[in-house]
Design a protein that fits this description.
The protein has 326 residues and is α/β, with parallel strands linked by helices. It contains 12 helices and 9 strands. The N and C termini lie far apart (80 Å).
Length: 326
């Protein structure tokens, strides 16, 4: 048998891992793939300075944008509502996959820039409107534009300041919204998807959960955005509940009880009910709510609050208004 051949050592040294540049989440892809490459140079040439106070933290990594679009299960038959156009990076990916995209941007400085970025897409309608009025309701122009979509999906990197009231407006029986995929501040995403008995479970969980189910998908670190926010974000998927907890007519009473009881979330439910109902009625209430007097509001399932809202007339407010904000 011949001698085994020995492999000659390579003349080229391997580059040390320490000096290797990693592809970080949220960075423009190497090699200039897609229109996201060079985006911030174009913004600079246009004289645009981003305003973090308006939630202007942009996703530019094509892989993240495509993952969000994939989570929304898009097809050419879909109509999409995007809130927060920004520089149009997500809008472009949505327009490549969906039949029609309505995208809303409140910052008029960015609107013209986004129009230029999206000039090749005839299926995009870009609107420059405020979304919510001073009471947290959809302004009439936005409500009309959404109504024109009839059945639609929500896909957005939501500005953190308006995320909660916007979701409460959109996931209601007035609109036909079968699915939403949104990026939220992780703290809010955790509250919306929390389970009874956890520290994150509270009014936001219950009030949005009256209409919708929230599924956490993945977490995005601050470095996924440019400029980076000071918080971690999470992508979640929302779907309407197959059977809402109650009717539209029962919803205000449900919200009222949730906010009242959670205004002192660590107090036992038996004592809180005595404050509103008196001793005899409070004893009956814990029985048909199927809870224990020692339970606290954060321990109660949504069905317990619904039972209370159905059985008991709305009490006189003895804790000062509607309770804490969501």
């Amino acid at each position: 048998m011949g001698r085994a051949l020995k492999r000659k050592p390579s003349r080229h040294k391997k580059s040390p891992a320490r000096g290797r540049k990693k592809e970080g989440l949220g960075r423009d892809l190497p090699g200039g793939r897609g229109p996201e490459a060079g985006l911030f140079q174009r913004l600079k040439r246009a004289g645009l300075v981003l305003r973090p106070s308006l939630g202007q933290h942009f996703l530019t990594d094509r892989r993240i944008l495509e993952a969000i679009a994939a989570a929304a299960q898009l097809s050419r038959a879909d109509r999409i509502l995007e809130v927060g156009t920004g520089a149009g990076t997500l809008t472009r990916v949505l327009a490549e996959r969906a039949g029609h995209v309505v995208t809303l941007e409140v910052d008029e400085r960015l609107v013209e820039f986004a129009r230029q970025e999206l000039a090749g897409f005839a299926n995009v309608r870009l609107l420059s409107w405020n979304l919510l009025d001073g009471k947290g309701n959809l302004v009439p122009e936005v409500a009309s534009a959404i109504g024109d979509l009839e059945r639609f999906k929500l896909v957005a990197n939501l500005p953190y300041q308006i995320a909660t009231p916007l979701l409460l407006n959109l996931f209601s029986p007035r609109l036909c919204l079968p699915l939403g995929v949104v990026t939220l501040q992780k703290e809010l995403a955790d509250r919306l998807s929390a389970r009874p008995g956890t520290k994150d479970y509270g009014p936001a969980t219950l009030i949005l959960g009256y209409w919708a189910e929230v599924e956490p998908l993945w977490t995005l670190p601050p470095g996924a955005f440019r400029p980076p926010p000071q918080v971690t974000s999470r992508v979640v998927r929302l779907r309407p509940r197959a059977r809402p907890l109650g009717t539209a007519e029962e919803f205000p009473r449900f919200c009222s009880w949730v906010k009242r009881l959670f205004s002192q979330r660590r107090k036992q439910i038996g004592g809180r009910l005595r404050e509103f109902l008196g001793i005899p009625a409070s004893r009956e209430a814990v029985q048909w709510m199927e809870v224990q007097p020692e339970d606290r509001p954060e321990d109660l399932p949504p069905e317990a609050f619904m039972a209370l809202a159905r059985k008991v007339p709305q009490p006189r407010d003895r804790v000062g208004g509607q309770g804490s904000d969501l």
